[in-house]
């Protein structure tokens, strides 16, 4: 098994990312090439991929936001400007996780953990206060007639139900904050719902400005 590496996304990765995303989420429209180019131009530091010698295994995309502008309610299309990242705000102190996906054939190899660790490394290096994510609830659909999405999320937290995304995020040290309805309406598995979670940067210094660094070297591998 070759070493899994984390690095910033490059333009030449775009075709492989679109193909991988299409395969993983067949019911959700994938990004297009122009959106991905725009994302890289808007906030290159926040776009990372996992790879090994065989090619790309997954990616994680992020933007910076003023969280008070979005905390009450939002959906994926609003906060990401429909994937263009026009709402990226370099004055914000919150790293907002837009997307994470991993090749199903690579699951169980620690790819997701390394991508999340890459985000944490970015958050620390830039002195951001926190990471906010809205994660899909892909295990909810079979339970939708028996319980609300909120109660389903609670049962995942209590350990009564395993959800492929929320269980993973809790294991990664994120704290559950609630459920967002209609986050991605076409997400059939999640019935449109997402869980809202936060990771607080233990190294955050409120007296030190955010540093938009171009030299972040992700010393991560498995």
TrEMBL record:
Task: Give the CDD domains listed for this entry.
Answer: NAT_SF
One protein family per Pfam: Acetyltransf_1
**Locate the N-acetyltransferase domain: which residues?**
4-203
Kindly give the PROSITE patterns that the UniProt entry links to this protein. GNAT
Q: Name one GO molecular function term.
A: acyltransferase activity, transferring groups other than amino-acyl groups
Q: Which InterPro entries match?
A: Acyl_CoA_acyltransferase, GNAT_dom
The identity of this protein, by name, is N-acetyltransferase domain-containing protein
**Organism placement in taxonomy:** Bacteria, Pseudomonadati, Pseudomonadota, Gammaproteobacteria, Pseudomonadales
């Amino acid at each position: 098994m070759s070493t899994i590496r984390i690095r910033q996304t490059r333009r030449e990765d775009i075709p492989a990312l679109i193909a991988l995303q299409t395969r993983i989420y067949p019911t959700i429209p994938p990004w297009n090439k122009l959106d991905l180019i725009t994302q890289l131009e808007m906030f290159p530091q926040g776009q990372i991929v996992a790879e090994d010698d065989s090619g790309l295994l997954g990616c994680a995309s992020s933007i910076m936001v003023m969280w008070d502008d979005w905390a009450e309610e939002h959906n994926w299309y609003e906060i990401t400007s429909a994937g263009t990242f026009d709402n990226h705000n370099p004055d914000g102190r919150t790293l907002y996780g837009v997307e994470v996906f991993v090749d199903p054939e690579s699951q169980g190899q620690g790819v997701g953990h390394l991508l999340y660790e890459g985000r944490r490394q970015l958050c620390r290096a830039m002195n951001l206060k926190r990471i906010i994510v809205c994660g899909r609830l892909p295990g909810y659909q079979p339970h939708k007639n028996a319980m609300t999405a909120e109660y389903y999320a609670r049962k995942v937290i209590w350990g009564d139900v395993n959800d492929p995304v929320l269980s993973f995020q809790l294991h990664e040290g994120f704290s559950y904050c609630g459920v967002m309805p209609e986050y991605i309406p076409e997400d059939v598995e999640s019935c449109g719902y997402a869980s809202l979670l936060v990771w607080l940067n233990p190294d955050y210094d409120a007296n030190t400005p955010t540093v938009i660094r171009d030299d972040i070297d992700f010393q991560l591998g498995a």
